[in-house]
Model the fold of this input.
Amino acid sequence: MSAGASKWDDLRVRLLSAVAMVLIGGVELWLGGHWFHFFVALVIGIMLWELGRMLSRANTGTAWGLGLMGGLGTLGLSYLPSVFLVPVIGAIVGMGWLVLGRGNGRKTWVTYASLVLLSGFSLIWIRDSLGLWVLLWLVSVVIASDVAGYFAGRLIGGPKFWPRFSPKKTWSGTIAGWLGAALMGYAYAPLFKVEFGPALGMPALVALSVVVAVAAQLGDIAESAIKRRAGVKDSSSLIPGHGGFLDRFDALISASVVVLVLGLWL
Amino acid sequence: MTRRVSIFGATGSIGQNTIDLIARAPAQYQVVALTGGQNVAQLAADARRLGAQVAVTADPGKLDSLRAALAGSPVQAMAGRAALLEAAAMPADWVMSAIVGAAGLAPGLIALQQGATLALANKESLVTAGPLLMATARQHNARVLPVDSEHSAIFQALVGEDIAQVERIIITASGGAFRDTPMQDLAHVSVAQASSHPNWAMGQRITIDSASMFNKALEVIETKEFFGVSPQQIEVLVHPESMVHALVGFCDGALMAHVGPPDMRHAIGYALHWPQRQPLPVARLDLAAIGQLSFRAPDLARYPALRLAGEVMQAGGLAGAVFNGAKERALDGFIAGHIGFLEMAVLVEKVLSQLAGHPELANATLDLDNVAHADHLARRAVDALIAQRA
Done:
């Protein structure tokens, strides 16, 4: 009885947190502009704090410093042209490389911190140049592939996708994630037709959604691998019932970078 | 009390003249949004000078250069069509719609939905979707004010009058670059010749449209949509001096003419200060020095666009969108050197009759989607016709 109640409590906390995230994130997304820039900078700062903490658990000051730099750097980049992208990210990542020291996963820091910072820049860039709907599509595709993957993996199971890095991910869940993303692309197609005209039709959007889902899944796996190496279960416990920001937004990090690259290329 | 103003198409000639007027009394205005196209440097400079909240370039690929040009200022940089529509949704009291082309329709509709007063310089809004625009304004208790000198002139001649007592509306046309060119030479005029206007300094496309009178054809359709008169009540008169912009004839035989120098800042300023009048930096006419003004009937053989306007008004529905799309594409063809000056009207007429009974257009509701679709079909039809004759 008590075990059942605590399980119920946990689900309630998870749901409440999810509602809070959707509300806060949704309002920030909709507002755009300075509001969204500050919001993304805050989240990126927290993520770098989490990453720094996982990699140098002994020294909390290091993590705080890296998080602060990540947030300020992201905010600065949101008002600067892209020539500043490499120098700013390089400076923050380089600083982390120096303070983390040997044996603290410096290679992991360099690749993942770069990716996180780049995703902050991407999210803001997408909001400011491609608009609210493209960003909503991106978030929807990531959520759809995650949810579809979770349920198919649980219900169908079957062979593992990439056991070396992710012991739980199955092929059935991965493919269901692609299908979920494709469905989301199909759902957004009429809206995109109005925004972008016949240039971005339904088949193209469905294909792009699947590409984004693959990127999201790889991002998910990468974050799991980092946590496993650091020997932690969650990146932090800032979001009640969900763990940390890196846990919750790992898939969005890689997916947003892919959308930026596709957006610049298309 | 400061008024919140936004300018769509701020870097074009209407936009620049609007900015000129606003910059003369900066304390009276709070600039919300300025939008432009490729000329990011001008857009950024104006946004800084006027202290705009946001600056938007319509080209999503130009966000980078806009950010660079605005670096260190509190102006927010945004880019792309979605950003343009977002800027239109920002609360403002007065919105100048001076984007060129069919892209100007959607921001204008959104501004009206916010209840803003829309100063309308974008011709396509009324030509392609007049009933939709006017209905949106009524529904949200918003006002549309004309910014074209001809329509502003009609509007001013109608102050205090009852439209039901109007017998006819006469809009004047300078006749454009070729009003005295012999008919047989018109087929071979060059793009450069068509791009110079005798009286008005404007962009290249609208100057060519003046020479072919496609511009006047659009204005005739706009007159019908804006003032709600019948096509038979609208006349076009060639008036080479461009000083009488329009005349309104009433049921008692009176004819009210609006006379002024050819300076678009007059119509812009009138719309900006309406319902008041304010001193404007435009030249004052010395009628004694001018001596005489001349008028003549337009030669419909020389200007087939005027006849086509009549057909479009008769057809209604999406015919305006087809007409505009075909005209734009034919103009592209002329500027690119693919077709001759007179062929523009020939192509537009062919496309109008081709698409007249098109199953996707006939009886389709007049909304943004269908207007865009009609525009797309018309452009494709022109391309096909140009490809055929090559």
Remarks:
- Residues 2-31 of chain A form the longest helix (30 residues).
- The interface with chain B takes residues 32-34, 79-83, 125, 128-134, 194-198, 263 of chain A (CB under 8 Å).
- Residues 36 and 148 of chain A are 28 Å apart (CA to CA).
- Chain A has nine helices and two strands.
